[in-house]
Design brief:
By secondary structure, this protein is an alpha/beta fold. Helix content is about 45%, strand content about 15%. Strands 3-2-1-4-5-6-7 form a 7-stranded parallel sheet, with helices on both faces. Helix 1 links the parallel strand 1 and strand 2. Keywords: Lipid metabolism, Oxidoreductase, Steroid metabolism. InterPro entries: NAD(P)-bd_dom_sf, SDR, SDR_fam.
Length: about 260
């Protein structure tokens, strides 16, 4: 199978202006990849990160739920780098805060809440794959890494809409892996635990983080960089024979 070293890849990280996405973008840049910093609302942070990463990075705005915007982003990236996107990290999270005290319950949650998260997770991933597929098929190479969560295996806090969307994403991941493998395209998922600390987890109390530390075999809360390095693995030649997999990165809290 044809493989491409990370330093030769053009990597699109959706929702990468901050938090986990920014950590993933930095990890790829550290390894010499060309990086597209995608953002939707946080233009200032995205531009600042792109400047930090250097000339091998560009910040491009696109709502992943809108295929036309996504397709334009791929074309802009191809024009900027002079070669197409080889690697997609579907990380974008649509307006979600992990707040255990004020979360939606079965009495208050609505179908629209589920749809919002499904559109961000599954529709967003579908749009990026469709936008990049023609070039990936032509290259006979592609790496697609979807960001999941350990909550659909162990819903310690039942964030119904978010967790359900990520559970759907693993089915999406495996179907795409089956469909695209013959073209040299792998599709995998990395599922982290609660990360300390992102904008999304800022409402999580110290007591919750302390509990995670106490009950996790490694006795630590997962950091952005812990998960980012595993994303690198799936993009690397070392993972050339791995597809359709979900790797949980949470210090051993969930053992599958």
């Amino acid at each position: 199978m044809f493989v491409v070293e990370i330093r030769e890849q053009v990597v699109l990280v959706t929702g990468s202006s901050r938090g986990l996405g920014a950590a993933i973008a930095k990890a790829f840049a550290r390894e010499g990849a060309s990086v597209v910093v995608n953002y939707y609302k946080s233009e200032e942070k995205a531009q600042k990160l792109s400047e930090e990463l250097g000339r091998n990075s560009v910040a491009i705005r696109a709502d992943v739920r809108d295929f036309n915007q996504v397709a334009s982003m791929f074309e802009e990236a191809k024009k900027y780098f002079g070669k197409p996107v080889t690697t997609i990290v579907n990380n974008a999270l649509i307006d979600y805060v992990f707040d255990p005290m004020n979360r939606k319950t079965p009495e208050t949650i609505e179908w629209e809440d589920y749809l919002k998260q499904l559109e961000g997770a599954v529709k967003g991933a579908l749009n990026t794959i469709k936008a990049g597929l023609k070039d990936m098929k032509k290259m006979r190479f592609g790496r697609i890494i979807n960001i999941g969560t350990n909550l659909f295996q162990n819903p310690v806090v039942p964030y119904h809409d978010y967790t359900t969307a990520k559970a759907a994403l693993i089915g999406f991941t495996r179907n795409m892996a089956k469909e695209l493998g013959e073209y040299g395209i792998t599709v995998n998922m990395v599922s982290g635990g609660l990360l300390k600390v992102t904008d999304a987890s800022s409402a999580t109390s110290k007591e919750v983080f302390d509990l995670i530390e106490q009950t996790t075999p490694l006795k630590k809360v997962t950091a952005h960089e812990d998960l980012a390095d595993v994303v690198l693995f799936f993009a690397s030649p070392w993972a050339r024979a791995v597809t359709g997999q979900n790797l949980v990165v949470d210090g051993g809290l969930v053992m599958d």
